């Protein structure tokens, strides 16, 4: 079958099935062979790999993955796409399509059944509003992942890879960098999609750390503090964390912790590194 990266073929399939794009599923189909090849290369997909694809759409990326990988498990939430995928993937006997919500799926079970429990590679073109919950859900569940290569809004990709002291630095930067090494594979202009989204995108590869770059006594406490710090990022760290409904940490304890680390009492969360958040969390975990 002719590749769906040819825009004419995509239009033909959409018309044949009278498919209506669903805004709630963030459906924008990639129609650029150059970008698709960059994603395959960026994800380091080889014939030894089992790839989990989240959101295959009509199967454009799936076709490329099926040719590059040993096996592909594609998870699609929209039932209306199942008959289309049956046609567009009919040439490939190494693809399994699952109709499910990825947030409710047992990914460990998929890794066990399709890859003997070994680390899998994940490729995704996600609705932008659900990008963060899916990425964090995959990392926090500690399923065996080698890397996650995902198409996201360009600004979101920037937030994932930046360091302290920049306007894009925030809770997402710290969370991603705790679990993985981010690397922007490619920038993707809106004209590479059908229909065109209103924003440009980027492909980012998140290579899972074998061990987190920092050691912390209470991971949940550290991330609760990070969320509090950036929920009120214009306030000082002391005020932002002491105001948090999620935490019960007084100003005195915070000031004592900052003094111990040699940090200013007026410092804001955006100035702290992951190492400093971990160290402050360790100090406070003894009195929290």
Keywords, please?
288 residues, alpha/beta, 9 strands
What can you see in these coordinates?
The protein is α/β, with parallel strands linked by helices. Helix content is 39%, strand content 18%. The chain has helices at 7-16, 33-42, 60-68, 82-88, 107-115, 131-140, 154-161, 171-179, 219-231, 237-242, 251-260, 274-285; strands at residues 29-30, 50-54, 71-76, 95-99, 120-125, 145-153, 180-188, 193-194, 201-208. The protein has a seven-stranded mixed sheet with strand order 4-3-2-5-6-9-7, with helices on both faces. It has a two-stranded antiparallel ribbon with strand order 1-8. It is elongated.
DSSP summary, beta strand count: 9
Question: What is the end-to-end distance?
Answer: 61 Å
Average of per-residue pLDDT values:
94
Instruction: Report the sheet with the most strands, covering strand number, pairing sense and barrel closure.
Output: 7 strands, mixed
Lateral arrangement of strands in the main beta sheet:
4-3-2-5-6-9-7
Spans of at least 5 consecutive residues with low confidence: none
Q: Encode the helix/strand succession as letters.
A: HEHEHEHEHEHEHHEEEHHHH
Fraction of residues in H or I helices:
25-40%
Shape: elongated
The structure class reads: alpha/beta
CA radius of gyration is 21 Å
- Tell me the fraction of residues in β-strands, as a range: 15-25%
Count of alpha/pi helices? 12
């Amino acid at each position: 079958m002719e590749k769906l990266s040819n825009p004419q073929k995509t239009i033909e399939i959409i018309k044949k099935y009278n498919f209506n794009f669903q805004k709630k599923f963030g459906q924008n189909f990639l129609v650029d062979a150059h970008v698709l090849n960059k994603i395959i290369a960026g994800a380091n997909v080889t014939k030894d790999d089992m790839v989990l694809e989240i959101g295959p759409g009509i199967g454009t990326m799936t076709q490329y993955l099926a040719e590059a990988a040993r096996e592909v498990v594609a998870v699609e939430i929209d039932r209306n796409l199942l008959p289309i995928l049956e046609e567009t993937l009919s040439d490939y006997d190494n693809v399994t399509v699952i109709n499910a919500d990825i947030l409710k799926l047992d990914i460990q079970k998929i890794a066990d059944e399709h890859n003997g429990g070994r680390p899998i590679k994940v490729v995704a073109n996600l609705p932008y509003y659900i990008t963060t919950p899916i990425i964090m859900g995959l990392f926090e569940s500690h399923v065996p992942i080698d890397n996650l290569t995902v198409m996201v809004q360009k600004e979101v990709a920037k937030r994932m890879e930046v360091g302290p002291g920049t306007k894009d630095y925030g809770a997402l930067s710290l969370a991603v960098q705790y679990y993985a090494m981010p690397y922007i594979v490619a920038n993707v202009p809106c004209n590479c999609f059908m229909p065109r989204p209103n924003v440009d995108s980027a492909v980012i590869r998140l290579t899972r750390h074998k061990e987190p770059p920092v050691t912390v006594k209470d991971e949940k406490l550290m991330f609760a503090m990070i969320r509090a710090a950036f929920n009120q990022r214009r306030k000082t760290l002391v005020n932002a964390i002491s105001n948090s409904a999620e935490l019960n940490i007084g100003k005195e304890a915070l000031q004592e912790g900052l003094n111990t680390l040699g940090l200013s009492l007026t410092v804001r969360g955006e100035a702290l590194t992951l190492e400093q958040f971990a160290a402050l969390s360790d100090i406070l975990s003894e009195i929290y």
